[in-house]
């Protein structure tokens, strides 16, 4: 009698998820760990079944940690398996921290904060960089009756590890994700030192080339009293972000919109004015790319954004910056919906940008993407609180309409806002231009009244 014969028979149960319906098979292994196999479609007796062996990561999978991309890979794998029509995700418990355990993983995080990379941190603790064994995962694949697999992974060690245990791996399918600025170094280390596939931001089935968002974001860093601020605009050739009737869908093409979503995925927050919420009702998520959606921040002086706006009613995180002019009952209604509401100082009848950005920095926001509307972007340029500007230009002319940027009271060309460290890229039919806002320009404008350009009553943004 083999060890497999004395273990309990696997338990199977149907599991509905946002990504599709799966049958979950639970296997108790001789190692003492319980492995879960989420199967979609018919896999028994088949060749080249799409399989993901996902190593347990409590902090990334359940808590949404941005130190890694494990949670993003988990969700993306479930989507890809469902889209393929059949496949398996094997959730490998006992693999926490690449096999060193949860407590040691947290100890390794401390070493990383002291300057070690993800490989060195394990070595500081006297542990291997990767202590995982794939014997249990291989046994689960065998017990499911799968003859051969295509492995969904960025990690070549998983391929060799499963092959050592007799699994026929006939192909490898990568899981591209968009790197967040908080895990970019970690992912780069895994690529450079452990041979992992580096994230690209393009889904496996996509035929759209997407610009690396890190090239557009550049080297923006947080300031002591505010986050690093990146302004993002999508405009026509003649500098309009909407028509005279305020229609703005869609100025940019699908490839550019994927770039916009990948930019969101690299940042801690995306900021818009209340006018954007009222006019466009955007989601401000990263649904077009595999990444983590940022905190959504709405600048809303009198809290006129409707309670049923998408940013308040979906499962994302949203924060509203408002003033004492807003209705306390409306503030409480939003809080009951799970929306954070921060009452900050007022200046000139509007949210004081300086106070609002300071509060965001206190809450841990390091880099924020400002997408609209035109008046909020103008106010930040005039106040000298923006660090980088990204403009996508679409090959169309609207004529009269909403200007991308309002009056900066520029009297001479020599006084114009200038960009350095520039990047030029193409996304479908659209041209993207990015650059750091010259420090001299920011310095010259830093004495301007922060609310001399009021926060938008008619702002526009991509959804």
Main features:
463 residues, Rossmann fold, elongated
Fold and architecture overview:
The protein is of the alpha/beta class. The protein has two domains: 3-95 and 132-194, Rossmann fold (3-Layer(aba) Sandwich), CATH 3.40.50.10990; 213-445, Dihydrofolate Reductase, subunit A, CATH 3.40.430. It has 17 helices and 20 strands. It has helices spanning 3-6, 58-62, 70-84, 96-99, 102-113, 118-124, 135-143, 156-164, 184-194, 213-217, 254-266, 274-280, 310-313, 328-336, 353-362, 374-383, 439-445, and strands at residues 11-17, 20-28, 34-40, 49-55, 87-92, 149-152, 169-173, 228-236, 240-243, 269-273, 295-299, 318-322, 340-343, 346-347, 350-351, 367-372, 388-394, 401-403, 419-427, 430-437. Helix 5 (102-113) crosses helix 6. The longest helix has 15 residues, at 70-84.
* Count of strand segments: 20
Spatial gap, N to C terminus: 60 Å
Please compute the radius of gyration using only Cα atoms: 25 Å
What does the largest sheet look like? 9 strands, mixed
The residue-averaged pLDDT reads 87
Annotated CATH homologous superfamily of the largest domain: Dihydrofolate Reductase, subunit A
Low-confidence stretches: 201-209, 447-462
Q: Write down the CATH topology of the largest domain.
A: Dihydrofolate Reductase, subunit A
* Helix-strand category: alpha/beta
Query: How many structural domains in the coordinates?
Result: 2
The gross shape turns out to be elongated
- Supply the CATH class of the largest domain: Alpha Beta
Helix content: 25-40%
Number of helices: 17
């Amino acid at each position: 009698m083999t060890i497999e014969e004395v273990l309990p028979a696997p338990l199977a149960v149907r599991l509905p998820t946002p990504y599709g319906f799966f049958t979950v098979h639970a296997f108790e292994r001789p190692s003492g760990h319980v492995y879960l196999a989420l199967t979609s479609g018919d896999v028994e007796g088949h060749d080249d079944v799409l399989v993901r062996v996902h190593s347990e990561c409590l902090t990334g999978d359940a808590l949404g940690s941005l130190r890694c991309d494990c949670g993003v890979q988990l969700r993306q794998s479930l989507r890809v398996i469902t889209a393929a029509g059949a496949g398996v995700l094997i959730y490998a418990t006992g693999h926490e921290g690449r096999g060193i355990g949860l407590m040691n993983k947290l100890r390794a995080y401390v070493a990383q904060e002291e300057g070690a990379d993800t490989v060195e941190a394990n070595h500081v603790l006297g542990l291997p960089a990767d202590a995982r064994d794939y014997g249990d995962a291989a046994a689960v694949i065998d017990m499911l009756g799968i003859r051969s697999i295509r492995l969904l992974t960025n990690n070549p060690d998983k391929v060799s590890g499963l092959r050592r245990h007799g699994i026929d791996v006939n192909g490898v399918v990568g899981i591209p994700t968009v790197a967040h600025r908080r895990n970019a170094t970690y992912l780069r280390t895994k690529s450079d030192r452990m041979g992992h596939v580096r994230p690209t931001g393009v889904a496996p089935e996509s035929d759209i080339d997407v610009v690396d968002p890190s090239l557009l974001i550049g080297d923006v860093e947080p300031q002591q009293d505010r986050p690093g601020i990146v302004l993002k605009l999508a405009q026509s050739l003649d500098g309009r972000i909407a028509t005279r009737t305020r229609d703005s869908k869609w100025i940019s093409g699908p490839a550019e919109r994927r770039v916009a979503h990948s930019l969101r995925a690299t940042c801690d927050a995306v900021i818009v004015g209340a006018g954007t919420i009222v006019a466009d009702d955007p989601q401000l998520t990263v649904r077009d790319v595999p990444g983590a959606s940022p905190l959504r921040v709405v600048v809303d002086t009198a809290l006129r954004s409707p309670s049923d706006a998408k940013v308040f009613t979906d499962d994302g995180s949203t924060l509203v910056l408002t003033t004492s002019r807003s209705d306390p009952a409306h503030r409480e209604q939003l809080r009951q919906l799970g929306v954070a509401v921060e009452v900050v100082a007022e200046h000139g009848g509007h949210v004081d940008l300086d106070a609002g950005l300071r509060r965001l920095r206190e809450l841990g926001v390091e880099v924020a993407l400002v997408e609209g509307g035109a008046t909020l972007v103008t106010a930040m340029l005039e106040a000298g609180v923006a660090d980088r500007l990204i403009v996508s230009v679409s090959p169309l002319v609207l004529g009269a309409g909403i200007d991308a940027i309002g009056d900066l009271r520029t009297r001479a060309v020599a006084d114009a806002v200038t960009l350095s460290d520039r990047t030029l890229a193409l996304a479908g039919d659209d041209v993207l231009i990015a650059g750091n806002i010259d420090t001299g320009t920011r310095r010259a404008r830093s004495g301007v009244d922060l609310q001399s350009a009021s926060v938008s009553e008619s702002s526009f943004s991509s959804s």
